[in-house]
Amino acid sequence: xxxxxxxxxxxxxxESAVMDKQxxxxxxxxxxxxxxxxxxxxxxxxxQYETIGKPFTDNARISARDVNVYYGDKQAIIDASLxxxxxxVLAMIGPSGCGKSTFLxxxxxxxxxxxxxxxxGSITLDGEDIYxxxxxxxxxxxxxxxxxxxxxxxxKSIYENVAYGPRIHGLAHNKAEMDDIVEKSLRRASLFDEVxxxxxxxxxxLSGGQQQxxxxxxxxxxSPEVILMDEPCxxxxxIATARIEExxxxxxxxxxxxxxxxSMQQAARVSQRTAYFHLGKIIEVGDTREIFTTPQHELTExxxxxxxx
Amino acid sequence: MNSxxxxxxxxxxxxxxVQASLKKRYAREKRFQLYGRMAVLTGxxxxxxxxxxxxSKGTPAFTQGFIKVSLTLDPEQLDIQENPTKDxxxxxxxxxxxxxxxxxxxxEVDGRKQKKQxxxxxxxxxxxxxxxxxxxxxxxxxxxxxxWLMAHSEADSYLKGQVxxxxxxxxxxxxxxxxxxxxxxxxxxxxxxxxxxTFFTSGDSxxxxxxxxxxxxxxxxxxxxxxxxxxxxxGVFAAIYLEEFAPRNRxxxxxxxxxxxxxxxxxxVFGLLGLAVFINFFELPRSAPLVGGIVLSLMTLPxxxxxxxxxxxxxxxxxxxxxxxxxxxxxxxxxxxxxxxAMPGVLTxxxxxxxxxxxxSAPLLMIGMVAFIMDVPGGITDPSTVLPIQVYLWxxxxxxxxxxxxxxxxxxxxxxxxxxxxxxxYLRKRFExx
Lengths: 309, 434
Fold this sequence. Notes:
Strand content of chain A: 15-25%
CATH architecture of chain A: 3-Layer(aba) Sandwich
Distance between the termini of chain A: 24 Å
Oligomer: heterodimer
CATH superfamily of chain A: P-loop containing nucleotide triphosphate hydrolases
Helix content of chain B: 55-70%
């Protein structure tokens, strides 16, 4: 069965039923909770898919080519190729356990801390190989900041949370400069007005939404080129989510952003391009509007119409 | 309709079944709570009995009876020339003066035996107190004076009311004569109970009233200092290395198993090791806190390593990710973020280890810290003993006066422990605030 036959226009009802049955036999929720449980090679069909749509851009900041990721002997990502362009927001969507977080964490080599994780293929940042032997992870992570799923401020003061990155990298020469960096970062994360009188209070005492904005402020305090966001709003209420989304929209003026999200509305609202992951494979990449209005691939359509995932 | 009826029947069935089982479930819970309360209560009763016993026995040791003696510092009796030098004053015969004073106070006392009994009212140490007084005030020589002198431990015991005078004379260490003299002295207001400073300012002694805890206290302090300085940094750094850097392979597995086993080795084995290695091979001084501290740190290391590893492990990975995410190196992540969060747990482990070390006596017996030490150690290489061994030594002594000293020493030991724990809690609170 070639890829073409799987496309929407060739959709045969029987085919879809087989798919659904396969999904029912392998309930996604089971695979999902633990990434390491997910062995994509078990699903032969996914292996045959080609990425369709427009995975590459002209102004690529980050280019991934034929990336394969393994956890031990299980494969989590198959032949992923994708560009993230300058000053754009790329949303990664897909069912849980499909490898989008894994892919995101490959970009700043966060997977290095998992001993059994192995990454093949090439990912470049401005043409430099991220996995090259001369790439320093400390420098890389200073250039590629990250915001995590759960707000994780340090158990220190708000000021210290933001100042920590600049301090270890020696970005400020004196107290005044540091104050300036902290204030600017907090302002850019639209948190400053709420916390300006309590900078010495612990960051963990803030509300969930404030904590996540604090984490964003912490990430941008080291002036990264790229910001990776791993479901930044999954633990937040709609109002806090709206503020973060607004913030992402403002931040894209200065930064390149890749965001993993489970909310398709959120992907539609904040991103310019969207990549759909399925069981470790990038199924479809394209302009967000196109992905959500005229998906090319059956799996994409099934996902965004809510038939699974 | 039929199906609805079925459904309803099913519902009531469930309800009644659940209700039937509820009673049993609650009863079980109540029973469990009762067992728990009983266990806690029993524990409390025993703890209370133990503490009450120790405190009631130990408290009298903190006071000491004194007897006011009128005496004349007769140079002839003191056996000194005119214009005595300090050296002469050191060698002078003060006990003769005291004995004369006592004889003058009780002129009716006659015969060698009775006189001997009379002299035994005053501690042997009293002559040294008098000596110190005279050296400080040489102008007193030749004059008559009244001076408070330390009572003998048996006399002290009688003054504290610990002797049952109804017992036959042979069964008590105070004779009827001594008892009547002490009663007379008490009536004349010539006896006094004072806070026992000797107990805190001197080392061990053969005489209960002259024995003090200071040497053992300092010995314990120096020993624990050595233990802490060796085992805390080594333990914490070993835990960090094993947890964060060491590869997982057969060698590290072996090390881990050995650390766990080491925690279960009987402490006296460590004493044998200390004797064989540190004293016989390296020829470090015997009976010294240095060797004691090294041996005890071998004993506490596994405890500290294991608890530190557990608390480092339990630091949320999100903190590590956050630090790595802003570009902290691994070492920075550990020292800036992981360790501060793990610190309360690490400190708890350290304090458990130190408390164990404080109460340990078996390995220290092996390296000679059981010696009779009168001098307060001035450093980690001076011969000394430690509190639990002092307790053991006193408990083993036949003199009645050492009984209360034993309990008092236990109280000091527990006080030491409480101070250590309080310090740890204070430090933990400080780390938690950050």
